[in-house]
Amino acid sequence: MLIKRAADIRSSEITDKKLYLNRREFIGAAAATTAAVAAGMVGSESLVQAATPAPHGRKLENVKPSTFSTDEKPNKWEEITTYNNYYEFGIDKDSPSMFARNLKTEPWTVAIDGECAKKGNMPLEDVLKGETLEDRIYRHRCVEAWSMVIPWVGFPLANLIKKCEPTSKAKFIEFTTFFDTKQMSARTSAIRYPYVEGLRMDEAMHPLTIIAVGLYGEVIPNQDGAPMRLVVPWKYGFKHIKSIAKIKFVEKAPLNTWQDQAANEYGFYANVNPSVDHPRWSQATERRIGEFLRRKTIMFNGYGDQVASLYTGMDLKRNY
Amino acid sequence: MKLSDRAVRFGLKPIVFLASLGPFFYLVWAALTGNLSANPLSDLTNETGVWTLRFVCITLAITPLRKLTGWNALVKFRRMAGLYAFFYGTLHLLTYAIVDRFAGLDQAPGWVEAIGAGHVPGLTLVASTVHGLTKSIGEDIYKRPFITIGFAAWLTMLPLAITSTAGWIRRLGGKRWNLLHRLVYLTGVLAPLHYWWLVKADVNRPLTYAAVVAVLLGTRVLWNRSRRSVAVPARAPATHA
User: Fold this and answer.
1) What is the pLDDT of residue B239?
2) Which of A74, A190, B29, B64 has the smallest count of CB within 10 Å of its CB?
């Protein structure tokens, strides 16, 4: 006698075929999307490093040493030209080293604007006219808690400011980075462009503040801000605006890009300060590129003797 | 797919196992040969973190893929994928502890000195380092939300890794074990959040992972809902009978 066993699954538990197919379609679409997205993200964060150190440029002549230089050991050319934050060329540290070669830096003119007598376009040759270039070996501290020692070549920003003949209304300077999507591969809308930075007039006139046009005695590579960039060694790196296309003298403090981006994290002053943490990470220590042990970050990046007086009476916890 | 149990067990599984170690060996090789960036320590931290996220996504993808393809042997890879997520997550945590925390301790130069001279670090140094490191990591977890979230994400994986053995499934019983292992959904939520919280401006990458996790968890929700919605009307005729 054949006894039929009852089915383990009641017919009520069997999914209706229509629903079943829809679900498969949906999951199929979801899976395909997931796979495509996953492939994309693996690609965009590729492990393979294609960073390429900048080719060596023209040697700069008659460069004089400076007493402002540190005697610490400078970082290598390879390090300084492959580890850059220059978002216009991509957000990874090695992106600028791969894409910045497309930037055309000759001829170059800087637009001079605002509260000054000499408004107009100033060719780079005029910017450099009469300037004695100096080696300025400075400590460089990024807001991301890494640092380098960089042998810049440049001249005091104060000299350029004097050429522009600012009026008494000029209390601040607003700098703007060159921006052209054809030459710059900013593929993401990570931040708003063009990049803007600013200094108070006394900060800008300070003898430590320079316009750098060279690195290691050679013309500055594109990824480091060619043909002219700002260097303010007691401030975090994001203040050191690159590839300057415009200088405007203004009455009020300009809204710099990172402050505009996240005002609770990045301020106008951005002085290196180990006792004021970034809201998301500590600023007490830093990794000098090439070292394992972290160094203790020094107030004003070690330039306190020269610049602390600029900020007497100011609450640096509030004016970060 | 028509693969025999033997082919999966002795062929495919070892291949997948070795392939999953690929990123680890690549990183070791690249670090030793100077093929990382100018900041290799930061690369190691970032890459181990990103690979943790990828393996969390892979682990979460296995069940939906199994249901989609009907290839049940896929489930045999779920534990491995999960353990790799834990493996890369632990490497990520260790890298952070060493590179970010230990390297900043006052005791760290003493270690470098001792190791350089071929000495075994003294007991006082060991004790004060353990104290300093615990304090430093503890403060970081307390003070910084993205560290809190990241550490929490690792903690959610810990019991899953411990109870991943057949013995533990038996001890807990299938039902309880399954319930416990739903913690991985929390890992899937916390890990992209940790990533999103630490980037400076470009949130595209963390959002990509968040989207992948959302799809993978979303399919489960829909799956459960449609199963229920089918089950209920199917019983209804009984009342009309």
Assistant:
1) 43
2) B29
